[in-house]
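Archive maintenance. Older records in this collection stored only the sequence; we are now back-filling the structure field for every entry so that each record is complete. The fields below show one back-filled record exactly as it appears after the update. Entries are processed alphabetically, and Alkyl hydroperoxide reductase subunit F is next in the queue.

ARCHIVE ENTRY
Title: Alkyl hydroperoxide reductase subunit F
Organism field: Marinospirillum alkalitolerans
Length field: 512
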Amino acid sequence: MLDTDLKAQLGTYLQMIAQPIELHIAADDQPKSQELLTLAQEIAAMSDKITLKEVSAERTPSLAIGPQATAPRVSFAGIPMGHEFTSLVLALLQAGGHPSKADPALLEQIRQLPGEYHFETYISLSCQNCPDVVQALNLMATLNPGIHHVMIDGALFQQEVEEKNIMAVPSVYLNGQPFGQGRMTLAEIVNKLDTGAAERQAAALNEKEPYEVLVIGGGPAGASAAIYTARKGIRTGVVAERFGGQVMDTVGIENFISVPYTEGPKLVAHLEQHVKEYDVDVITEQQVTGVKKAELIEVTLASGATLKSRSVILATGARWREMNVPGEQEYRGKGVAYCPHCDGPLFKGKKVAVIGGGNSGIEAAIDLAGIVQQVTVLEFSDTLRADAVLVRKAESMPNITIIKQAMTTEVLGEDGKVVGLKYKDRQKDETHVVDVAGIFVQIGLVPNSEFLRDTLELTERGEIVIDSHGSTSMPGVFAAGDVTNTPYKQIIIAMGSGATAGLGAFDYLIRN
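Back-filled structure field:
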């Protein structure tokens, strides 16, 4: 089951287990059960602190993990490989007493949560967003005896997925009811359960001393800016909804110079680790609602708190553009999706559409073609904007159909899920219907700058206008990355833009 390299890596980690643990395996004669049984046996054979026990369970195959002589509260329904292999390793270590690196205050908050919480998380093994949610809930179950969590591979338990009408992952259920969908951090989940947390956090943020530089946004541009200012020895803070920004939703990265290949979550982990090498105050789970110039620059948050700083760097990035047609919002997460890697496996053997003929759209079509029955690509223009090599690959695949000059006009649905879409042939001025179960929207980016419309100079597209030093139209406020009018929205360019803004802010401070 495990190759030589994986066994070597796992063996190193298993040496960190401090207390005996027990694996409860529920398996039958089916091939997937036997795969999971083999995996469990290999793991148990690698450490004298791990024992294996065959049991019956609600779902088969499944693997539950817990300290010896206790009922396990963490389990995997399916085979936790692919992106979830890390979740398996962490579950083994945490059950074995290896401490988490999460914020100690947050860990104590989890321990103090009252009540019983039974979480179920439906995932796909190709989803890069799912492990964060799985690992967060596994940790919570490890720390608090009132919390139980099971990861469920949607591709393996398709009947459950269909019964619950799950068409996007991760989908989290709490005590049998929908709890959340999409990427969620540990802090987000805990704060959703702890109703008094937001007020306590807002009060604590209001008490913070003013910064010399406050970076808004935790993506590549924000991380770069924070590192550059912190290295100058000035008081630096970062405030963001989540660390990593849109890069967390990026799978393969092959144009990051000096690194032939990496993945978004891995790059973000390295960025966060680098930022925390310095004395940077990182504040997450906070949405910025305004920036205004007073004696200092004041940054207001949705929680009601206000942070103050002598200078500010805006690095709020961009998000996927939506179609803005009838039915899109109604069926979001019920067939309308924005991440083919995450949600593609849920449409196995079905017909889907991809909206957009740029690199993202054609790459999505190629990826999906290996899973689904048929992919229809709809491109607004009369030409595809994707690289020629991608276009040739897509055109060579028998189950990809490309329609140009097609304007999507409506998402069609029945019984709470997508059943098709309408588009207008712009050349013939005719309306057509395509029967699909899923629609993957890949039509570019929108800058996250709405809260700045009446504050800074923006382009018609909503991008923040900056000069060669990263300065905006407000003295002391700088900007960097995809939210600005810098051409070419690329990770490496955003990092350079962040460095420029950081140095620009430093120069502003020493001159003022």
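Update note: The longest strand covers residues 406-414. Residues 491-511 form the longest helix (21 residues).
Entry marked complete.
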